[in-house]
Structure formats: structure tokens, C-alpha cells
Design goal:
The complex is a heterodimer of chains A (333) and B (263).
Chain A lengths: L2 H25 L7 H8 L6 H35 L11 H14 L2 H4 L3 H21 L6 H23 L4 H12 L7 H19 L2 H7 L3 H6 L4 H23 L5 H9 L7 H26 L7 H24 L1
Chain B lengths: L1 E12 L2 E12 L3 E5 L6 H8 L7 E6 L13 E4 L11 H6 L14 H14 L14 H14 L4 E4 L8 H16 L3 E5 L3 H7 L2 E6 L2 E6 L1 H4 L2 H7 L2 E8 L2 E9 L10
Parallel strand pairs in B: 3-7, 3-8, 5-6, 6-7
Antiparallel strand pairs in B: 1-2, 1-4, 8-9, 10-11
The chains are: A mainly alpha (333), B alpha/beta (263).
Chain lengths: 333, 263
């Protein structure tokens, strides 16, 4: 099979898989309903229990699973390409940690209990501050080292502030609430979470999705890419702000979900001949598939225990990543 | 016809003056060898000549065909010294990257692009490797694959930074012959070299750079003289003649003090 044909096949299979998982995410839950009944309830105007469950609980959960998974996969692939580093992931720039800190401040101050939307709003504001800081630290230089180091510093600082909030929390319940939120989950999210996060994620996707060709050229190094006409400043701006908008919004509604952005590009790379421009859409779809699978698994593995999504992705992701490293080492020798 | 004209170019890197006023022209059909000791400013000159560095003073003018197209990429192809390739893409995909400046946004490579990439792979002798991952090639194969990428760009001017470093003698000849072929086809080539023998045999003209200035310029016979080489490099050189041209072979270091003051 020729390479473009194989690429189209991979895309087609992933689109089909994403659609199937989205439906499965709608159909699976503690209240057993048939797929057809569930789908009919989505568009019903009655106020029966099943209609409420479908429209108020499962639909936002499925939409967020799809969008957040795609966000993590896409931004992971962009950052690995931009930094030319297979270890890069969406959390590297300090966006996730800062968004978490914003959410924790909302929880800690008690504001989140009064105005529920203040939590994602604080998280978004914090990620916006974070990206401005990272951008300022990068200065006018087009190099990537300052960005990575700035992101590491910011992550540590946001982590320390979060720990401080836990440390000073007025009672154990407040601490527990903060801790549980940080584990990352899609349970009990509402449509208003979708409405606050979706626009930022869409804007982020729009900024990231067009970078494929510049990232292809960057495979040869920064100088060669510039000689091929790539505007490195524009690339840096779009990669950083696109990641901030989409990952900041994702973290704001779901907490920090690790390993998806790191692992998915590695999984997909062999399928598309490692070309960054082809990796972007494939990674976005792959991220959506992986996150929806993980979210469905949390409902099936321990239905009564509220297993957190972030715990599951880390639990599966970390050994899997070790296996990837093992593979790479074997190939290198 | 002149392709590139550099006038009184001055460049600082991190506050240190690297180029202190360099002027030269590159014309069609030339293979210009850029030689000089380590740290003389050769790589900086190649980078500044295509606008990758902001000069402190002076100007660089592209005057050949495609010069009006504004953006780089169509006018100048650049082969950097660095041969690290980030991802294990195929040789074919690597060479196609050279066509990026010619492919419109959201378009895919057309027949013209595929033809140019085929030709470039043929020239560099990497066609049999086309489906191999670049990270699995030997050093010489990788150098030729990267050369094919630059050739696929089909720019009127090619700037190559030490393209023969790390290659065996046969591969070095292959690369230099490709440059000669490009010049014969009406393109201009500027190539940084450390091997004086290659510079003497394959370049139509040499620019000798030392301390950020051009200290000698002309045909290999004019530039590669015992006095110049002693003064610039501090080496003693054996000169000979063969049926294929001039032979230049450094054979020893100039005794301390003997060649001072000439730079």
C-alpha cells in the first residue's frame, strides 16, 4: 500500500473508532439503558429520569472526554515536534500545573462552593497568566531551551503553592476535596462545563492544527527550517498559546490528566511514518479514543467507587511508557 | 549574472565581533569555496548571507531569479553542518521537505514536486534508500540524503556548510562533483571546506576568511600559496600537480614565530 493510502486508512479507522467510543460513552453507566433508548432520550423533551441522565450527565461527559482527549493528543504531538523532543508533553510548559493551582485557589477560598463556575474560570485565568510568564521568560530568542526551563520552574512553583493550600486547608474535608479534584475526572460534569471549556479548546485547536508543515521542516533543525521559509516566531507563538488555550481549558474542567499527551504521539508515530504533519490529526483522534476508553473503564472497573480518570491513565500510562522506552532501546542497539 | 551580493557585512554574536566587514559576489556557474581556520566566521557568514542572523551593518542582496519572491526557500537552499534529524522519517519524505517552499498552503506535492525529488535522489544516489528511515542510515548515506533534500529545493543558489565532513574520499568526490554539476547547470554554489585539496581541485574560486575578514580571494592557484597558508593556518604545505589539477597537502606546522604578522 502506498503511504498516502495507508495514512487515509489510519485516519478512517480512527474516526470510526472515535465515533463508536463516543456512542459507547453515552450508553454505558450505572443506569442500564439500551443504546437506542439512550439516543432517543438525547433528543427528547420529556423530563423522565433517562432523559435527564442522558442530557445532563452522560452527554457532557462524552463530549468532554472526546474534546479533552483530542486536546491532549494534539498538543502533545505539537510540543514534541516543536521542541524536537520525544519526552515533551502538554504539562511541560507549566500550563496544567498553573490551571490546577487556579482551581485549587477557587476551592480553597470556598468560592467554588458558592459559584460553581468560578473554579474553571480561575483555572483558565491561571493558565493565561502562566503562558504570559513562559512567553516573557522565552524573551525575543527563538530557542526552545528557555521555554522548557521556564515551564519547569513554573510547574514547581505552582506545585509548591498547591501544597501550601493543602497544608493550610482549614479542615480535612477541604483538603480531600482539593486532592480529589487534582486527581482528574470527568464524573458529574455539566453542560455549563462544556460551554466554558469548548470555545477555548476550539481556539487552541485552530492555532495548533495548522502547524504541521512548519513542524515537518523543523525535523531538519531550526536553521534549515528557517531557510525553508518557516517563521519561527509565529510557530513559537501558535504552539505556546494554542497549548495554553486548549490544555488550560481541559485542565480547568477535568483536572490534570497525565500521560495521554505523552503516550499517544508515540503510539501513533509508527503508523504515519513519523511525519509531524500527519501525526497531528492522528494524535488528536488517538487521544480522544484513549481518553474515552479510560473514562468508560472507570465506570466498568469500579462502578461504585468513583475511580478517578487521572489515576487510571497514570496507572496504565506509566508501565506502557516504560515498555515504549524498552522498545526504543532495543531498536537502538 | 550575479545571484548574491554581500557588501561590508558586519555581524556580532553575543557581543563578540565575528564578521568585520565582508564583501563578495556570487555568480551563476560558480562553485565558491569558503575556507579559513576554525572560528574564522565561515558558518556565520553562510547564515548571515541568507538572513538567519541580523547583521550589525552592511547589506546582503539577492539579485538572481526568484530574488523577487521575497521569502527564502525558493531563492536559496541551505545545507547546514548539523545532520541531526529529529524523527525516523523515510528518505523519500526527507527529500520532499525540500519542496516545502514550492507547495502552496494546504496543498499536497504535485507531479512537478515528485519529479524534482526523484531527480534529487538520483543525483545524490539515494534512490535505493528511499524507503529506509533516515535515523538508520550510515553517516555518509545520511549526508547524501540531506544533500538530496537541498537539491530538491531547486534554488538558484546553494549554500553548504562542510558538506564533506565525516565522509570517505570517494563520497567527498561524489558530493563535490554534484556541486560542479549544479554550477554547470547555471546555479551558484558556496561551500565551506576544511579540506584544502578538495578546495583546490573542485572550486572555481576561493574566499579565504580569517578573523572575520576576507584575507585572500581568487582562483585556487592565487589563494592557496605557501605564504597565505603559513600566515593564516600556520602550516607548511606540499604543492604538486596531477593530471586532474592542483595538489595541496599540509605536511607540517610552521615553527613558532616564522609566519606571524601576515594576517
Amino acid at each position: 500500500m502506498s503511504e498516502p493510502a495507508r495514512y487515509r486508512l489510519v485516519l478512517l479507522v480512527l474516526v470510526a473508532l472515535t465515533a463508536a467510543l463516543f456512542l459507547a460513552s453515552l450508553a454505558i453507566g450505572p443506569m442500564a439503558t439500551g443504546l437506542l433508548d439512550s439516543l432517543r432520550a438525547l433528543f427528547s423533551e420529556d423530563a423522565t429520569a433517562i432523559v435527564l441522565i442522558m442530557q445532563e450527565i452522560r452527554l457532557p461527559r462524552a463530549i468532554l472526554g472526546l474534546m479533552i482527549g483530542a486536546t491532549l493528543g494534539l498538543s502533545g504531538a505539537v510540543l514534541q515536534g516543536y521542541l524536537r523532543n520525544p519526552l515533551a508533553e502538554p504539562g511541560l510548559l507549566g500550563i496544567s500545573a498553573s490551571a490546577s493551582l487556579g482551581a485549587v485557589i477557587a476551592l480553597y477560598s470556598g468560592l467554588a462552593a458558592v459559584v460553581p463556575l468560578s473554579l474553571p474560570a480561575f483555572a483558565l485565568a491561571a493558565s493565561f497568566v502562566a503562558v504570559l510568564l513562559v512567553r516573557a521568560m522565552a524573551g525575543s530568542a527563538v530557542g526552545t531551551l528557555a521555554i522548557v526551563l521556564g515551564g519547569v520552574a513554573l510547574t514547581s512553583f505552582a506545585g509548591a503553592m498547591t501544597s501550601l493550600a493543602l497544608n493550610l486547608s482549614p479542615n480535612p474535608f477541604a483538603a480531600l476535596e482539593i486532592l480529589f479534584w487534582m486527581l482528574g475526572s470527568l464524573a458529574d460534569r455539566s453542560m455549563s462545563d462544556v460551554w466554558i471549556a469548548a470555545p477555548f479548546m476550539l481556539v487552541g485547536w485552530a492555532m495548533l492544527a495548522g502547524l504541521g508543515r512548519s513542524l515537518d521542516a523543523l525535523t531538519l533543525g531550526a536553521d534549515a527550517a528557517r531557510s525553508l521559509g518557516v517563521d519561527m516566531r509565529r510557530l513559537q507563538f501558535l504552539a505556546i498559546f494554542g497549548t495554553a488555550a486548549s490544555v488550560g481549558a481541559a485542565t480547568a474542567v477535568a483536572g490534570a490528566i497525565g500521560f495521554v499527551g505523552l503516550v499517544v504521539p508515540h503510539l501513533m508515530r509508527p503508523l504515519v511514518g513519523s511525519l509531524p504533519s500527519r501525526l497531528l490529526p492522528v494524535s488528536a483522534l488517538g487521544g480522544a479514543c484513549l481518553l474515552m476508553t479510560a473514562d468508560i473503564a472507570t465506570r466498568l472497573v469500579a462502578p461504585g467507587r468513583d475511580l478517578k480518570l487521572g489515576v487510571l491513565t497514570a496507572l496504565v500510562g506509566a508501565p506502557f511508557f516504560l515498555w515504549l522506552v524498552w522498545q526504543t532501546r532495543r531498536e537502538a542497539s | 549574472m550575479t545571484l548574491l551580493s554581500v557588501r561590508d557585512l558586519k555581524v556580532d554574536l553575543g557581543g563578540t565581533p565575528v564578521l568585520r566587514g565582508v564583501s563578495f559576489d556570487i555568480g551563476e556557474g560558480e562553485v565558491v569555496g569558503l575556507i579559513g581556520p576554525n572560528g574564522a566566521g565561515k558558518s556565520t557568514l553562510l547564515r548571515a548571507a541568507q538572513g538567519l542572523l541580523t547583521p550589525l551593518g552592511g547589506k546582503v542582496e539577492r539579485t538572481g531569479p526568484q530574488a523577487a519572491s521575497g521569502e527564502g526557500g525558493k531563492a536559496i537552499a541551505y545545507l547546514p553542518q548539523e545532520r541531526e534529524i529529529a524523527w525516523p522519517i523515510t528518505v523519500e519524505a526527507l527529500v520532499m521537505l525540500g519542496r516545502l517552499p514550492h507547495i502552496g498552503p494546504f496543498a499536497s506535492p504535485g507531479p512537478r514536486d515528485r519529479q524534482a525529488a526523484e531527480q534529487a535522489m538520483q543525483l545524490a544516489g539515494v534512490t535505493p534508500l528511499r524507503h529506509r528511515a533516515v535515523t538508520r542510515l550510515s553517516g555518509g548515506e545520511r549526508a547524501r540524503a540531506l544533500l538530496a533534500r537541498a537539491l530538491a529545493q531547486e534554488a538558484p543558489l546553494l549554500l553548504a556548510d562542510e558538506p564533506t565532513a565525516g565522509l570517505d574520499p570517494a563520497q567527498q568526490m561524489v558530493v563535490m562533483r554534484i556541486f560542479a554539476g549544479q554550477a554547470a547547470a547555471g546555479r551558484g554554489v558556496v561551500v565551506c571546506l576544511h579540506d584544502l585539496g578538495l578546495a583546490a581541485r573542485w572550486c572555481t574560486r576561493l574566499l579565504m576568511l580569517a578573523g572575520g575578514r576576507i584575507v585572500a580571494e581568487g582562483t585556487p592557484q592565487e589563494v592557496l600559496t605557501a605564504e597565505v597558508l603559513r600566515a593564516v593556518y600556520g602550516v607548511e604545505v606540499f604543492f604538486g600537480a596531477s593530471a586532474d589539477g592542483m595538489v595541496v597537502m599540509p605536511v607540517g606546522l610552521t615553527p613558532a614565530g616564522a609566519g606571524e604578522g601576515a594576517t
